[in-house]
Amino acid sequence: MTGKRDTRRMDASKNEELVRAARDAAARAYAPYSGYRVGAALRTSTGEIVVGTNVENASYGLSNCAERTAVFAARAHGLVDPRRAALAAVAIHSPQPRMPWPCGACRQVLSEFGDGETVVIVDGAEGTVTTTLGELLPHAFRLEDE
């Protein structure tokens, strides 16, 4: 990883754009079983925005969270690489009453393509919280740990 990013001073308009993209994505979620719609939008270190939604399945174990959907799409398009901190920020939104904090699996997948300074914005009915991936997953197992 090269140099540290000053994530606490990121351009507020970029964060707002990311939250808007996550909100738009949540409207396209496929959640017929839980009714809990989630959208995620991630920004790569080069500025591209990729979105994902949660996609449920009648066989619940085959469902996928919005955060992982976005990361997998970014990887499929060649926009993120685990050998460099290519994930600058992620916004997660749900219109439901409970805040959409990323689950443990999503935190681990995000850490594969980001680092402790990756900005995480959680947006929901209770407001918007900005933190870092390092605060959400302080002892992540990383590629370099293998």
Can you tell me about this structure?
The chain has helices at 12-26, 66-76, 104-113, 133-136; strands spanning 39-44, 49-53, 87-93, 119-124, 127-132. The protein has a single domain (11-130), classed as Cytidine Deaminase, domain 2 (3-Layer(aba) Sandwich), CATH 3.40.140.10. The protein has a five-stranded mixed beta sheet. The two termini are 16 Å apart. 27% of the residues lie in helices and 21% in strands. It contains four helices and five strands; from the N terminus they run H-E-E-H-E-H-E-E-H. Mean pLDDT is 90; it is low at 1-9. With 146 residues, it is of the alpha+beta class. It is globular.
In short:
The protein is of the alpha+beta class. It has helices at 12-26, 66-76, 104-113, 133-136; strands at 39-44, 49-53, 87-93, 119-124, 127-132.
Descriptive key words:
alpha+beta; Cytidine Deaminase, domain 2; 4 helices; disordered N terminus
Characterize the largest beta sheet: strand count, sense, and whether it forms a barrel: 5 strands, mixed
Q: What is the average of the pLDDT values?
A: 90
Spatial arrangement of strands, main beta sheet: 2-1-3-4-5
- Characterize the overall form: globular
CATH class: Alpha Beta
